[in-house]
Amino acid sequence: MASHGYEPLMAKSIFTLQVNIGKVCNQTCHHCHVDAGPQRTESMTRATIEQIIEVLDRTPQITTVDITGGAPEMNPHFEYLVRQCRKRERKVIDRCNLTVFYVKGKSHLPEFLAEHEVEIMASLPCYQEANVDQQRGKGVFNRSITALQTLNNLGYGKEGTGLRLHLVYNPLGPSLPPSQRDLEQDYKEELMSRYGIQFNRLLTITNMPISRFLDDLRESGQVEAYYTLLVNSFNTATVEDLMCRSLISVGWDGRLFDCDFNQMLELPLQNASPQWIADFHLATLEGRRIVVGSHCFGCTAGSGSSCGGAIA
């Protein structure tokens, strides 16, 4: 980083609040850096959500609210947060695992998301059943396909509707994602020919050596090899547009972090920065020094990786 003029790594303008509203999920995925699952209880309160809304009211520069989890829809205040953000004309992203639509009391979610023009980023690590079920659980693929067809029927992923549907790819093991552009073409051809499914973009995201994926690396004795791959694949062209430079991550309890990965590693913002959403101060947070660690090589390897997919 220093040899390319990026030490220390500094934040730029903040345009996105990425809000993790809880670790409760209806799935337990092998690669999950959040360690989310049905057994988790952490969930953002209505009071913390009100603090987020107050920040939006006084910070028009923040144009996007990126809602994640767990399965964010499992939070009882998810729909309230979406309504309030859309009322304030903010773009809302829902990071959806698709199978949450089949949870009791959640079957109305596709229509709700369409009504409020929420952009969906949906997890589908492969267009083949065996690979998806291996990573995300038995039966997940078929339920995901049916969910995508439901979203298509509502207009998601189709030209002229304004309803944006993106799919998210994670490698099955300790390797870098292939070319996002080439893989997107494969996904579009395969999903259309097999299931009649349309979507807008494919986002490739590198598996981060955190939580469950790190545990899998340890069990298979591949930790050193994976870190070596990430370090040797460092690409300076990714640094300018790293997601941590233009967003703030909000934890389920209201704490602030440079990114969702730092949040899971309990790496707080630098001491001079506000630490809680209740103390949010844009001028102080912009230009802050970003807290980095060895996991950050996951975002700078190859074509790079961010919550918006490949960078370079």
Number of strands: 8
Count of separate DSSP helical elements: 11
Order of helices and strands: EHEHEHEHHEHEHHEEHHH
How widely separated are the two ends? 16 Å
Under CATH, the topology can be stated as TIM Barrel
What is the C-alpha radius of gyration, as a whole number of Å?
19 Å
Tell me roughly what share of residues is in helical segments: 25-40%
What is the total domain count?
1
Low-confidence stretches: none
CATH superfamily: Aldolase class I
Strand order across the largest sheet: 6-5-4-3-2-1-7-8
Q: Outline, from the CA principal axes? A: globular
Estimated structural class: alpha/beta
**Beta-strand fraction estimate:** 5-15%
* CATH class wording: Alpha Beta
Task: Tag the structure with descriptive keywords.
TIM Barrel, alpha/beta, 8 strands, 32% helix, globular, single chain, 312 residues, 8-stranded mixed sheet
Please give a structural write-up.
The longest helix has 16 residues. The model has no long low-confidence stretch (mean pLDDT 93). The two termini are 16 Å apart. The chain has one domain: Aldolase class I (TIM Barrel, Alpha-Beta Barrel), CATH 3.20.20.70. The chain has an eight-stranded mixed beta sheet. The protein has 312 residues and is α/β, with parallel strands linked by helices. The protein is built from eleven helices and eight strands. The protein is globular.
